[in-house]
Amino acid sequence: MEPNLGKPSFLRNILVRLFLFCVFVIALRFAYVVTIRGESCDVGDFCFFALPDNIDVVSGVGEVTKSGVISSSPPSKQKKIPDLWATGGFQKSVQFYSSIFQDLMSEAFLSPNMKTLCVDTATGADVFALRELGVEDSIGISKKGFKPLVVPGQGLKQPFSDSTFDFVFCGGGVVEKSRKLGNFAAEIQRTMKPEGFLVVHTGTNDTYSFESLLGLFNSCKLIRSRDIDGLNSKMPFIREVVLQKFGGEESVEEKSGDSAKKCSVPSYKKDLIKKAEPLIGEEPKKPWITLKRNAQKIKYLASLVDISFKPRYVYVDVGSRSYGSSIVSWFKKQYPKQNKTFEIYAIEADKTFHGDYKLKKGVTLLPYAAWVRNESLFFEINEDPGHKEVEKGRGMGRIQPVQTSGGSTSSGNVDQIQGFDFADWLKHSVTERDYVVMKMDVEGTEFELIPRLFETGAICLIDELFLECHYNRWQKCCPGERSAKYEKTYGQCLDLFTSLRKSGVLVHQWW
């Protein structure tokens, strides 16, 4: 009789499956520790191997003690360290930052007794370099964290108390990478001590963006700026900016120096006007063609400079008409926004178009007339066949103050609407640090609104203005005849554009 082999075979299969299951569990746990938690398998948490205790991670840079502090003299027993620290890329980064921090120490911006923070540092190479130089009270912050040098958090939402750090470092262009620059800058300044230092590495190389960067950190003053070589090809050029937070009294003086009604356009903005397309000096015989062609020659501000360092991006369409008119057909499709998300304000008094905006996300409708004060107005609809195509059967609207007697003598359709102080609204809606683009098509009211913007200082809040100036232009329908709708001449419009540019406002002739 042959022996019964069924039972041993069954047991052997059970043991094999049990062994494979254990291997699977171990592999799963290892993947969790290394991949999900972002740590190497030296954390003493269900790991089955570790790096040797005496490994030399960064030769000549220093070693990590049990307390996590970098020491130039080898301790008797080292803490187990992440594999990343042994890579060539990490060592190169440490050497780069060590050189940077040594220079800052020589200029007295950094010292070993300072409490320092490195913002949004992915690997902590900058923190490593600081500790190696003896700045022991150094920590980094990043979204995922990387123990023991980097704790979880974000630059725009830090887990630290007010006035914690003497020195803050923002390397690798982290400032311009932030999606919420206003919150980011405010949080940096919150956790800095008064008279503390902030060092920013950025790739910006134009004056406009540099001044915008300084405007972000409005609780700090500029100490110095220099150009240095970058760490790698991703950022070959670096502008290093050193800022110092104001002390208490100095901060108060800075705020009290602001003027409520006066402003002056800085010289760097005036210099940009020299790069703008020239104004049309002679009155065009066919304005409906000439002005449209001229719009194709416009040199947009966002194509000349880097607009990254702005806390907000705002587009104001004064006289927007329908949603698909200039907001969609021009601004959304053609304006170079540099991948920034703009808040959009549509100002339109004609109630015919208000329904277009009810379900539009990201657009705020102001269903009033932009004016020089808050008061009731007549809104007159007057068709002008020589001006432009009529939308939804309506002509272009003009506003005028309500007459106390006699009423309006116009033959057009007249509605009574509410006007609002546009300059005052603008001053309460945006700041000089914001990036503000404006299109104004107000059927002749520009000759009242522009002076009001200058009078209140609100003109300095506008980075770029697209203005349609209305005058008694030649009519398309009737050769040799001018429009009787407007009293102003082309020469007066040209004077308006010229005065705006001379004052430092980047204005374009719109159609």
TrEMBL record:
Residues 274-354, 414-511 form the DUF7870 domain. The keyword Glycoprotein does not apply. Keywords: Membrane, Transmembrane, Transmembrane helix. One of its GO terms (molecular function) is S-adenosylmethionine-dependent methyltransferase activity. Pfam families: DUF7870, Methyltransf_11. The chain crosses the membrane at residues 14-32. InterPro entries: DUF7870, Methyltransf_11, SAM-dependent_MTases_sf. GO terms for biological process: alkaloid metabolic process. Gene3D superfamilies: Vaccinia Virus protein VP39. The keyword Ligase does not apply. Residues 150-200 form the Methyltransferase type domain. This is Methyltransferase type 11 domain-containing protein.
